[in-house]
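Private note to self, pasted from the team thread so I don't lose it. Backbone tokens:
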């Protein structure tokens, strides 16, 4: 049966006339039957489209080259990293494991950047050995990195993670926390202030093992409005000018980090009492082209006003690429009606939707198998954990029954990578779908997986007997 696209900017999501959800050409009910639930589903087509749209938005607006470093923290799957490697994406890697994973997935080391505070010797050695750039986050790190490079007989490209003065944000509150963005930057652990950055430039350029190529700053996901991203520009441009005046050095590459999002990002729609819950057709984030217009235009103007050359523009998108490419399928279990509240219980928990998810983050949820009746009932959709575990709170859901299949939208970013084993529940499987085909890219965790790290000391076992497990799947 022909499926009709009904979701905003989501040609990979469609429903048949009978109400069955299809994802990149394959039925949600078929996926649930084959792989079980809860199940994370990633559309490869949407993933590639998101990357290309992001890349092109900035490449078409920045006269110098653009380098896109995929933020692997948003989804650490090797299959996703391999897909984006095919697309030509670089990688923003925090620590040795993310760097190693990118290399395993075939990423070009010259397009990888090692970030993070308090980097281990292992991470520095791996970056030096493979040829990745290292963004130093502390003056002490410069000597450590130079020693590793000298011992290996190699030269390593270096950037400096900075903390420019965000004067433009002095009175601007963050949508993430109860601080102004300027105050948040001041108390955050990352980066070097302008004076320390100038010392870092001189220290790095004095070491023959190190080649200084760039500056880095990451604002983060404080805002959903593109014009506010442009407010970072004065501080960045002032820092570049200060470093040129004090040291004579200007960066070949200037990385402005990530934090970009799109569409139905649940973080930016937190309904209060009486406010509508987000729907699948909603879109409350400006298009990425508007972000690129604001950032690229302001940055060009600010650099040229100081007679500074235009560097390679580095970007570190994560959730923009991954979040809308994924959804989570979950089965309805018990439906409980109280005197003043109705609970629809499902087999996915908030612990499987990402630890950085706020309790008020509002994912759109749709019935995926055509089992819904027309009327909508206000309810809480709740998971199985021994906490409130609220996936959807006091929002209308079409009437469903035990066994109905729901889809929680926009979970491709951070849901799997930040999932926990709360209440000893195994993490869901992950499948990658494209053109009607599905591949398992992360298997479902079993009891044995959840307890694989455990050891019971012999003194706690009766008569030295081995523990009576594994005892089941």
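Design output:
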């Amino acid at each position: 049966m022909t499926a009709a696209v009904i979701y905003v900017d989501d040609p990979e999501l469609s429903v048949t006339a009978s109400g069955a959800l299809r994802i990149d050409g394959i039925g949600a009910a078929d996926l649930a039957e084959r792989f079980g639930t809860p199940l994370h589903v990633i559309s490869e087509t949407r993933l590639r489209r998101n990357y290309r749209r992001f890349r092109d938005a900035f490449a078409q607006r920045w006269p110098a080259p653009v380098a896109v470093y995929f933020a692997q923290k948003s989804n650490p799957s090797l299959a996703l990293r391999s897909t984006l490697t095919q697309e030509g994406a670089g990688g923003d890697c925090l620590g040795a494991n993310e760097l190693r994973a990118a290399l395993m997935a075939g990423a070009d080391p010259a397009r990888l950047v090692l970030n993070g505070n308090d980097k281990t010797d292992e991470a520095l050695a791996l970056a030096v050995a493979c040829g990745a750039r290292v963004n130093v986050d502390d003056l002490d790190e410069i000597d450590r990195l130079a020693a590793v490079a000298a011992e290996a007989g190699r030269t390593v490209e270096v950037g400096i993670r900075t903390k420019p003065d965000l004067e433009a944000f002095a009175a601007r509150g963050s949508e993430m926390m109860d601080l102004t963005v300027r105050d948040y930057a001041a108390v955050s652990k990352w980066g070097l202030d302008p004076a320390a950055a100038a010392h870092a430039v001189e220290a790095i350029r004095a070491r023959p093992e190190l080649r200084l190529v760039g500056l880095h700053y990451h604002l983060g996901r404080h805002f959903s409005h593109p014009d506010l991203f442009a407010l970072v520009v004065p501080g960045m441009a002032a820092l570049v000018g200060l470093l040129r005046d004090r040291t004579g050095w200007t960066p070949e590459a200037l990385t402005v980090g990530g934090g970009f999002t799109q569409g139905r990002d649940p973080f930016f729609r937190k309904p209060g009492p009486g406010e509508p819950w987000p729907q699948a057709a909603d879109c409350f984030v400006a298009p990425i082209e508007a972000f690129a217009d604001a950032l690229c235009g302001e940055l060009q103007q600010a650099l040229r006003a100081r007679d500074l050359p235009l560097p390679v523009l580095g970007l570190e998108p994560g959730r923009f690429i991954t979040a809308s490419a994924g959804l989570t399928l979950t089965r309805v279990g018990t439906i409980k009606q109280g005197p003043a509240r109705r609970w629809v219980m499902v087999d996915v928990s908030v612990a499987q939707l990402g630890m950085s998810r706020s309790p008020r983050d509002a994912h759109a949820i749709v019935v995926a198998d055509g089992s819904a009746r027309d009327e909508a009932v206000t309810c809480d959709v709740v998971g199985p954990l021994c906490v409130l575990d609220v996936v959807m709170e006091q929002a209308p859901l079409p009437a469903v029954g035990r066994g109905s299949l729901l889809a929680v939208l926009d979970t491709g970013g951070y849901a799997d990578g930040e999932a926990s084993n709360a209440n000893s529940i195994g993490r869901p499987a992950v499948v990658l779908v494209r053109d009607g085909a599905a591949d398992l890219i992360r298997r479902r965790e079993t009891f044995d997986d959840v307890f694989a790290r455990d050891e019971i000391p012999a003194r706690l076992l009766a008569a030295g007997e081995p523990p009576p497990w594994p005892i089941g799947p």
